[in-house]
Amino acid sequence: MASKKQDLTVELRGKKKEVALVRLTRPAKRNALSDGLIYALRDAFQNLPASVRAAVIDGEGEHFCAGLDLSELKERDAGQGVFHSRTWHTALDAVQYGPVPVIAALHGAVVGGGLELASSAHIRVADATTFYALPEGTRGIFVGGGGSVRIPKLIGVARMTDMMLTGRVYNAEDGERLGFAQYLVPEGQALDKALALAERIAQNAPLTNYALTHALPRIAEQPADHGFMTEALISAIAQAAPEAKARVRAFLEGKAAKVQKG
């Protein structure tokens, strides 16, 4: 059964309700991000049920998310603009640094704020209809939802600069090649692939998943000597967990599957 807030539903999937499907439900607006929808996303990821081990973000209709709902763009002074941007940062931080790994199922428009939302997920699955754009530069505005931090980590500063200066649009194939998405699937299959990945990820040890989504990106930002120390600490904590010990024991006793060629 799905719960619904403003333009957002949360549905629990799996036998143990271990996967949360979080869906944007503004198809008539191409799932453009209103303030209400941003607050609903924040609340959803800050209050996931304890049973959830992975989450999928999807957009209802033909598009994942076409960005900021410009009809809500108001005359703001600089201070108000800062505060508004920071509400988006809080919401998308709740996605990236919430309790579980998040997979975004992309299709159609992944534009502006929609790309900012997608970049806050840990894994992105795109179908063949997906296209990416950052039109803020041509509209006299600037990204405000964390895109200037997250998107260059996917494609580099130069490519993001080009997109914003020229309005360049990338299709699904080029987007997968450049790093917008880790998976590219045929039209209409992004959600099924994302859910399958979420179900697989949900079987991992929760502490390991948490380390991968919280520690790994921070280690990547640290100087090497700091990163090595952080890695040693996280590794020691993860392997000391009872579940980790049980999994290693099962492998050594021949009870766990070995890695196979893909």
Q: Could you characterize the architecture of this molecule?
A:
The chain has 262 residues and is of the alpha/beta class. The protein folds into 2 domains: 200 residues, 2-enoyl-CoA Hydratase, Chain A, domain 1 (Alpha-Beta Complex), CATH 3.90.226; 47 residues, Lyase 2-enoyl-coa Hydratase, Chain  A, domain 2 (Orthogonal Bundle). The chain contains 10 helices and 10 strands. The strands form 2 sheets. The protein has a 7-stranded mixed β-sheet with strand order 1-2-3-4-5-7-10, with helices on both faces. The chain has a 3-stranded mixed β-sheet with strand order 6-8-9. Strand 1 and strand 2 form a beta hairpin. Helix 1 runs parallel beside helix 2, helix 3 packs across helix 4 and helix 8 packs antiparallel against helix 9. The longest helix has 19 residues. The radius of gyration is 19 Å and the shape is globular. The chain starts with a strand and ends in a 10-residue tail after the last helix. The model has no long low-confidence stretch (mean pLDDT 93).
